[in-house]
Amino acid sequence: MPSVAGQVIVITGASSGIGLATARRAARAGASVVLASRDGPLLERLAREIETDGGRALAVATDVSVEAEVEALIHKAVARFGRVDAFVNNAGVAAYSTLDALPLDEHRRIFETNYWGLVHGSLAAIRHFRSRPGGGRLVNIGSVNSDVAIPLLSAYSASKHAVKGFTDALRRELLASDPAITVTLIKPSGIATGFPQHARNHLREEPRVVPPLYAPEIVADAILDAVRHPRREIVVGAVGPALAVPLAVFPRLMDRLLAAAVPPLSKSGNPRTANDNLDTPTGEARVHYAHAPGLPFSPYTEMQKRPGLTVLLGAALVGALAARRRRRTDPFA
């Protein structure tokens, strides 16, 4: 699949944020997009907008926590476009709360959507990919919180740990049985979407994503790159990798630093809003965060999408440094 054009791409959580940004970008690139979320009327409007702009789109109201609805999503996509080439598991919900104050039904709802919804989508997509020649692309949206769990998004972090474990295990199984089916895990850092307003909030003020924030279009580009080229994993933004080494070397110190720094950074100072999407859709087709646009570029993410060029540039840099050192130490240079 060297190009997105002509591909049929199913995207869950497509009514806002990263999912909507991905659907619009894919449609402009020539893909046929299948938009899935719980909000059927909103999806229909978004699909009409895409088709008015010259794209091809199908809206399918889907609650990914219900396995039968995900199966129906695949069937409707095939009925309309003849096949599915790529399936993007993007739907997600969250809650801002300490674990002891988070009601268990809300904790379970987060896992029903973030983990079980992704399991339903992954297995349904694999069954379809196995039924057709050429395999397919499975793209699962995780988070850097699968590597760095943070206070106040504790249940969300736990669900993303589960997503990472499932995705890594599934990839390894398919490498042995169905190598034509590729599995990519996308791990966004803080993204400037409506995530804080859409999350269930048990704080006294409106929450915010811990900065720095990146534009959702960077994640959309990473997703479409994974549709074009087999990738194991793409991290959007460098925050998670930057914390990986100190977490491995100084885990207790990092525990204390994260415990002290994250809660105040997670509070915006703005008044609380009550319109969350944990149980029902918000009805908002919001892509961007209301208070910040997010960084438009991530060099670290671009390096992962161009590994060959990155290796060449790294080798050139090492060579240049070595040559400079030789000139300094060689009296005849």
UniProtKB/TrEMBL annotation:
Keyword Oxidoreductase: yes
NCBIfam families noted in UniProt: PRK07109.1
Record's GO cellular component terms: membrane
Family membership: Belongs to the short-chain dehydrogenases/reductases (SDR) family.
Lineage top rank: taxon: Bacteria
PANTHER family from the UniProt entry: DEHYDROGENASE/REDUCTASE SDR FAMILY MEMBER 7B (PTHR44196), DEHYDROGENASE_REDUCTASE SDR FAMILY MEMBER 7B (PTHR44196:SF1)
Single GO term (MF): oxidoreductase activity
Keyword terms of this UniProt record: Oxidoreductase
Protein's name according to its UniProt entry: Short-chain dehydrogenase
Gene3D superfamilies (alphabetical): NAD(P)-binding Rossmann-like Domain
Originating species: Aureimonas jatrophae
InterPro entries in the cross-refs: KR_dom, NAD(P)-bd_dom_sf, Sc_DH/Rdtase_CS, SDR_fam
Ketoreductase domain ranges (all copies): 7-189
Pfam families registered for this protein in UniProt: adh_short (PF00106)
